[in-house]
Amino acid sequence: MATHPVKIMIKKVKTDPRYYPRFQVDQGRVIEFVEAMECGEYFPSIKVVKDKKTGMYILLDGKHRLEAHILRGEVEILADVFFIQEEHWLMAAARFNGKSSKPLHADEIKQIIAASWRAGIKNTDEIAREMGRTVRYIEMVLKPVRDEERNKRKDKILDLHQQGMSQREIASEVGFALSAINKTLKSNGDAQNDTFQEPNGGISEKTDESPGTDKVFSKRSDFVLRTPNEDYNISSLNSSPEKSGQNCERPAPINSMERELDEDGNNESILNPTKDIFGTPDELPEVDQVFAKRTEFVLRTPCESNHINMLDTFPRKSDPNCETATPKNSIQTGPPPADNKPHNDPGPTQKTTRYPSYLDQIDFYRELPVQSQHAIRAMELAKKYKMDIIDMVKEIDEPVIWIKKVLVAAMALSLMRGDKLDDASSVETLLGINFNTARCIQSALPFQTMLCPISPDMEQWAKDNLASNDLDLILRLVDVNKSDLPHLLKGETPPKKTNCFKELPDCYKDQLQTNIAVLRELRDHARNKRFIGDSAKQLLVHLNKNVTVINEIFDGLREKKSL
Q1: pLDDT digits (tens, 9 = 90+) for 197-256
Q2: Which stretches of 175-242 are DSSP H helices?
Q3: How far, rounded to the nearest angstrom, does the alpha carbon of residue 482 sit from its chain's CA centroid?
Q4: What sign results for the dihedral spanned by CA atoms 318, 324, 330, 332?
Q5: Considering the entire predicted model, what is its pTM?
Q6: Whose CA is closest to 479, among 435, 426, 401, 425?
Q7: Are 440 and 372 in contact (CB under 8 A)?
């Protein structure tokens, strides 16, 4: 459970790699968060647990928000402090991050599953429930981990056997059933003749007659075939105890998802450890004693208004011991305006996409109608991911012509400097964009890094996606010269226009006449052979410089077609 959000010192928040699921921090995303915060947007509080040993807060979710607060020079941050057992910290962090606007990668999820297993959570159904994955997927991920553990156990059993320990002593040492020890030694070929031989020459009791050991079957089908039931129907063993034979005092309930036998012969409860299968609940091994409500830290969080309700959108396996959680939409949207076309509800979970977004964490975005959300999302896909308009159709489920109008409107509104209401009205009239949608586009433009389509890196995108008539529409709305538009779309100031000389200014005429007089004087001295040696060389250097400048003047006049 968590208390209501409280402000804590940022310097007391620690990111422990053991409990934080992400491999790295996206610095570009941090910059976007900083920009949004500077625009006055609110972000959900981070999620932490308190380490009683050190007094520090361990971060579970919100690394990018934390880094954004640090870059802004803030010393405090709003946090939800959860009270969770330490072995569940990593899985809780995975749940929180898995439902964020930037989901975890597959490799990160696999590492979390393996780490949770090694931390002592040996119930695959529980891990599947907390991670929002199927039991089959969890078992697939854990197979190499469990194989490694099994090989280590086998090596330890064989080593103890070679040291002369009896099978009972080995079973006591490693904490496994005597039958599992016997099976391991048989498979290795080390105990063919002395299966139950004690070091003192005595014979131990048989495995199946051991008073404290569960009966082990090599295959579940063997148990079914030997059941004194006439129709051999597995389901009837659970539902019709009266059909059991006289030799069976109580029917043994069979459920393929309740108890399995691993290769070592250990009974493993993976669904409901409290059911009576081979004995009373008090006789179950300690490994099966699972806390009945593992998800209590999620389901009973009192801060539903602080976006923690997004955690309950994962599909869950039904479990009679778990409380029912009602899925909630991660993006709360109101009904579209009357003149907007209707859209289907986005559903209880976010659409899986290769292009993650954090827009659903911004207050103004969640309050927009669906079509306006699509307009803002189109701006994000164009600016952040440079996605072509044709590819946006599948991403936001809108027609190409509508998406193009939205992006043209966004560019025009970015360049317009008039009254915002008049600008939105002009866009509505010329492009046919809904007035409310145009106003929503205006409200998103302050997000320069994330949404505003005017920047140098958008030049190539505009060339690839906008035709000349689209640029003409922008010119009509912005009222600028066509030669200035390329500079404006890149966010640059157009070069200043210089005044042309209709006549050569008098000051230039006078200076050139003076230079001509000097040159004539130098000509006369050269004819009289007054320049010799170094003086002649120096004169040639200066004359060459003048000739170079004169040639450049001629070239410039030819390029501009001034002659």
Answers
A1: 444 444 344 444 444 444 444 444 444 434 444 444 444 444 444 444 444 444 444 343
A2: 178-188, 220-225, 234-239
A3: 42
A4: positive
A5: 0.44
A6: 426
A7: yes
Task: Please tell me the distance from the alpha carbon of residue 365 to that of residue 197, in angstroms, as a whole number.
Answer: 75
Q: Where are the domains of the chain?
A: 6-123, 153-288, 359-489, 506-559
Topology adopted by domain 6-123 = 3.90.1530
Unique residue bearing structure tokens 């946006």: 392
In whole angstroms, what is the distance from residue 512 CA to residue 535 CA? 24
Joined tokens for residue 153: 């156990």
To the nearest 5 percent, what fractions of the chain are helix, strand and coil?
50, 5, 45
pLDDT by residue (tens digit) across 276-331?
433 333 333 333 334 444 444 443 343 433 443 343 333 444 444 444 333 333 33
Contact 129, 322 (CB under 8 A): yes
The continuous run of DSSP H or E covering 199 comes out as none
| 3-class state of residue 261 by DSSP | strand
Record the tokens describing residue 286, joined without a space.
């300690």
Cβ count within 10 A of residue 320: 7
Q: Which two tokens stand for residue 260?
A: 């399995």
* CA 236 to centroid of chain Cα atoms: 47
